Amino acid sequence: MANTGVLPFVRGVDFTSNDFSDGRFPDAVQLMTGVQWLKLDKTNLDQIPEEMGKLLKLEHLSLVRNNLERLYGELTDLACLRTLNVRHNKVKSSGIPADLFQLEELTTLDLSHNKLKEIPEGLERARSLLVLNLSHNQIESIPNALFMHLTDLLFLDLSSNQLETLPPQTRRLANLQTLVLNHNPLGHFQLRQLPSLMNLETLHMRNTQRTLNNIPTNLETLTNLNDLDLAQNSLPKVPDALYALPNLRRLNLSDNEITELSQAVEMWQRLEVLNLCRNKLTALPPSLCKITSLRRLYVNYNQLDFEGIPSGIGKLCNLEVFSAANNQLEMIPEGLCRCGSLKRLILTSNKLITLPDAIHLLTDLDALDLRNNPELIMPPKPTDMQRGAGIEFYNIDFSLQHQLRLAGANIPAPVTASGQSKDPIARKMRLRRGRRDQEEADQDQAKILKGMKDIAKDKNKHKNVEEMKAESLKPKRWDETLEKPPLDYSEFFDEDVGQIPGLTIWEIENFLPNQIEEVAHGKFYEGDCYIILKTFFDDTGSLSWSIYFWIGDKSTLDKKACAAIHAVNLRNYLGAQCRTIREEQSDESEEFLALFENDIAYIEGGRTASGFFTVEDMTYVTRLYRVHAAGCSSIHMEPVSVLVDSLDPRYVFVLDTGLKIFMWYGKKSKNTFKSKARLMAEKINKNERKNKADIVTEMPGDESSDFWRTIGLEDGLPPEDPIIEHVEENFIPFTPRLYQVKLGMGYLELPQVEVPHGKFENTLLNNRNVYILDCFTDVFVWFGKKSTRLVRAAAVKLSQELFTMISRPEYALVTRVQEGTETQIFKSKFTGWDEVIAVDFTRTAESVQKTGADLTKWARQQETKADLAALFTPRQPPMSPSEAQQLMEEWNEDLEAMESFVLEGKKFVRLPEEELGHFYSKDCYVFLCRYWVPIEEPDEGAAEGERENEHQEQVEDDYQCVVYFWQGREASNMGWLTFTFSLQKKFKSLFGEKLEVIRTHQQQENLKFMAHFKRKFVIHQGKRKEIPDPNLPPPVEFYHLRSNSSSLCTRLIQIKPDAAALNSAFCYILKVPLNKEEQTGIVYVWIGSKSNPEEARLVEEIAEEMFNNAWIGFQTLNEGEEPDNFFWVALGGRKPYDKDADFMNYTRLFRCSNEKGYFTVSEKCSDFCQDDLADDDIMILDSGENVFLWLGAKCSEVEIKLAFKSAQVYIQHLRVKQPERPRKLLLALKNKESRKFTKCFHGWGMHKKPPE
């Protein structure tokens, strides 16, 4: 026994799947005197262990799936026991002591799936029971006394027994909410007690011999009943009493003999699921169409024909599933195709001849099952399947040409339709996820391979090309090649730090801050350094901070430096304006001492380790592993005794001695295991031994003497006896169990982590927690980087107790594992770890030649991968106006409600309705959108009764909430942090899993978000409600309207007033203030001579809404009608400007990067913006006249060379594809871009600075 002293503080342990048979139950459990819950599921127990009698505080005990026949033992002494779960055992009625039911706290008892033939003696004494489950036994009768005393029951399950009746005292269960009586021969039971159960919500009586004679005629008192199951009975019709249940939501009448439904079905106004499968129905009543809440209707295996389905079924606006397989349908009513919410239509095995033409209008249908209808001929698809203005919908032609023809007006020439029809569902899904996928792909632009980062060189943005070229030829000092990495402060501090008033303290350990518990506040080790954060509300009610770093007299240099550095990092992370204050031991300021309620205390020594390396000799434990298969492509390393007898000729063995790793290949071992075991040894050597270990291959019959000595033969000679096969053929490795160590106020818990599909993935490990992985022969303790000191200490002691309380072989070990430095043996237990060895692809010929290597041979071996496919793909065609209009209408139809907020100060307030659609570049906005979402059903048809019954028991949600967080390009990240710790938490508590948060930046919005503003998307410069400087004249406001590739991407962006920015193909708004009052002035709407008429109409409409003021004049100017006084003066005088925008038909933006480990060229979406120019990459811009090579300030030399060659190849390709438009290759440097370059970007301005 480990005797660590922690067992009395353990509050709960999950021992599921351990083998405690044959007296293996740990004696140490009796020391857990404070345990409150204990799980012993699947532990092969055949009796209650004696040690249980010591657990006097035990409240919840689970003994599921064991071999228990008797519950006699120590359970009756557990006075605090509240929950006892012993389902799936072999317990008999005689094996349950009557004293067990005298426990006053017992509220939940589960004895299902046992061998009870009668109610256990004394059960009526358990008066405090709330939940009782006796299902799946052999009980024949219920004694009258039982329900006389158990009057507090809320849940009662007596299903799958042999009950013929229930006692009259059942009516005493006035609080009962759930009653399950399925699969009992209750043919003579009249249910007279049922009306007395007034709180009943769920009643299941499947297969209980129900007829019209043994169902009460009056059920009006059951006003709370919402779930009723009467399947598998002999009902010839629906009992009249059921129509008096107005609150029913789920009704299952399948597998009966019902021939007709009454018109009274309209009484079920809240019904959502109705299952009538496997009956004898020939028709559905027309009144069924009045149940507008109905979501699922199952009528499989009946005798319905076309006349049997009411024509008004289209009124069921919420109907999502209509399943009518195996009927006599020759046709379905057209009204069924008008159920706008329909997602699944199952018509398998009917006599269908054709379907209504409107079937093609159900574009949101997820499943249409028409199998086994041999004579079915599908109606032809309409020629135009778009929805909205100018297309056919519900057999009504809303096209502009058709409506003009009806009005007798002139009809414009029709637009040539696309030669190839498009799948509307696929197009809709592609467009919905296209922009989002692009955004996700571009979020990590700053990340590249470590090999790239190590040799990437900072480029001075002011240097010209000649200087850069000359510089690349000169050898650089080592310090010149260093690059400042981007800091992610979330690696150091938690997300919610500084958001709650109070004191937070970190200690410096291994160069990093580690938060300490509140009980340790005010106690400082002399050899350590600390960071202290004081969070409080200032006079305005906003959060403010004070940051101190405390230096111990005997602390090491690394701790002192890191305390100062991370104090500044904390300030930057919070966006605080305060300065960091240095406090030294014995010389603290009064303000610092006032932070603590009591006097601070100094403790001798240091608690944390220094980050400096200490040189010491490593000690290694010699271990022998047997290699087994694990899954399809991995291996399992099974530790065995380091003895000759452990060897088996059918297996590969790995003998690890630390600085020498022996690979022993059995004569009958598989080659795949040899190679995989060798790869494992290589990884161990590289990652754990710093390539200092020797890997020695040992072949049978030719082993070295070192191998035999290491394995236990002192003379170094082979064993005299041959090595034999001894491992069992059906050997199965031990299934690991993952425990999470939980620490509370004075208690410990050790629950098991639920492993989805039994597959261990590294994502199960949270860096805030500590875990224990029990592999029987190995026990690993994994420490997350952000786990606390007390949890780590508790985990170490718990692992020792867990190791000793279970009988293990002598060679078993406990190993501590730190996040980021996991051993290969530990990693092999999980999937998902990236084991690809990093390779530096950025080596140059010069660097290789300096090493003395053969350059020719090296060049032949290098096959650097490159992906330039994006350069040769056709340009994405622009979206047609009708298609854009259709998408806008569809997305706005799905939108049920939208609430908008804007950040004012340090909190979000509701955005006034008149400001909707207006954004400011220094502000942050939040939009809460509630969407109707179709319910996803399984792909298979609902032909099986059990499948349908499962469907109708599930409560599905039909909406989703999406929160869009919009951040201006000049706004700081404090808005995102404020949202994360305020609104997002509130929304998460309200909507749970239905909530999705999408963060979007200015001019990088997705199409769905843009569609909600209906092309009125205005972006202003500056900050909302910004107070102007009274000493300065009011500014001129100049706005540019432009659509990129689609009318959905229409934005009106404020730009710098400059006549050179005009273009005859666009429309602009110019506001010229008069005097010094911003409220007065004149607004010009400038319409270019080649501009789109629709955009001209739109810009006038927006201008009238923006400047709706009696003191502001309004004037629309066509190009060439500009007045000389105000218009040109406001724009800085007349200047030449572009007369066309042909470049809009050719612009493409490519990104050249090495972030995937090889050189790739990827294309940005056609709605690109200035912020898509990545600072650490190279961009290729095609303007139709020129191809620009744009260099980011932090791109590497290798990327420049490869991008230059890629641009040349692209130009050559264009000479073939577009010989009439030859391009020139030009260079563009950051902050020195020409007008030819910047005109391709809407709203070009100063380059974005990194947010604070």
From TrEMBL:
Pfam families listed in its UniProt record: Gelsolin (PF00626), LRR_14 (PF23598), LRR_8 (PF13855)
All residue ranges annotated as the Disease resistance R13L4/SHOC-2-like LRR domain in the record: 242-324
Region (Disordered): 413-444
The entry's keywords: Actin-binding, Leucine-rich repeat, Repeat
Repeat in keyword set: yes
Domain Gelsolin-like, first and last residues per copy: 514-593, 636-708, 752-826, 1161-1215
Record carries keyword Repeat: yes
Cellular component, GO annotation: actin cytoskeleton; cytoplasm; nucleus
Entry-linked PANTHER family: PROTEIN FLIGHTLESS-1 HOMOLOG (PTHR11977:SF51), VILLIN (PTHR11977)
Protein name: Protein flightless-1
Native source species: Gryllus longicercus
The organism's taxonomic lineage, starting at the top: Eukaryota, Metazoa, Ecdysozoa, Arthropoda, Hexapoda
